[in-house]
């Protein structure tokens, strides 16, 4: 008879012996704050690598929104005759392209950052969210540089920003929250579902046309504007940037409020999901 009685061995380990990964928000945020210098270093490294030995240098950050602006001008203004409430279409489209380019660039590059940096995952301990946040910092720098072209457009079009532009910081808070949340979700999921890497560019291309970047938010029927604002919080932010900066109006509080709730859920839910899944990053990435 065997020393070990097979019938006495449980099929699963007892509850007290099971490993459970618990997310401690305060501790995680303290660790993330302590790693802020690492985020800056990663962003600086990627910016140097991107523009090193490039003839145009940082001017490449302007080409994407400017190229899309020219394409939208031909497609929507000339062929589609999109209404802009009297705003010159280059300004109308460029104000929409800046936040969208920031969002899409952050999600695309930040979403792949964990897999791209897999060689560092097992070498030293640091918050894994520094990788996607570093890519968001890179997208922020690119967007700030691309914003300089907006000032030139204002001069060329003889159009001045309106006094209600003081709402812009509030709008950017919602945009940044939605961007961080979406980037954390995509970066965590892409580690385990590699097909998402191939689908991500297609999703971003679809989002470019599903979001009111080249056309007005008013094109969406009123009965669908609130549900749409929840599904795509970037859309109301773009619309309110146009309302406040170009039209001199206050934000549309209904869609914007729904977008703010959606962005908050994305931020907190995305961070919680990321921290839950990070335990398997080093093994699978």
Please state the oligomeric state of the protein chains shown: single chain
Give the structural class. mainly alpha
| Main sheet summary | none
**What string gives the helices and strands in order?**
HHHHHHHHHHHHH
Number of domains: 1
What is the 3D shape?
Answer: globular
Instruction: Kindly provide the radius of gyration, computed on alpha-carbon positions and rounded to a whole number of angstroms.
Output: 23 Å
Number of strands: 0
Strand content: under 5%
* Portion in helices: 55-70%
Average the pLDDT over all residues and give the rounded result: 84
- What is the tally of helical segments? 13
Low-confidence stretches: none
The separation of the N and C termini measures 45 Å
List keywords for this structure.
mainly alpha, 285 residues, single chain
Plain-language structure description:
70% of the residues lie in helices and 0% in strands. It has 285 residues and is an all-alpha fold. Helix 2 (36-51) packs across helix 7 (130-157), helix 4 runs parallel beside helix 8 and helix 8 (168-192) packs antiparallel against helix 11 (234-246). The longest helix is centred in the middle third of the chain and has 28 residues, at 130-157. The termini are far apart.
List the helices and strands and how they pair.
Layout: H1 25-34, H2 36-51, H3 60-80, H4 89-111, H5 113-116, H6 118-121, H7 130-157, H8 168-192, H9 195-210, H10 222-231, H11 234-246, H12 253-277, H13 281-284
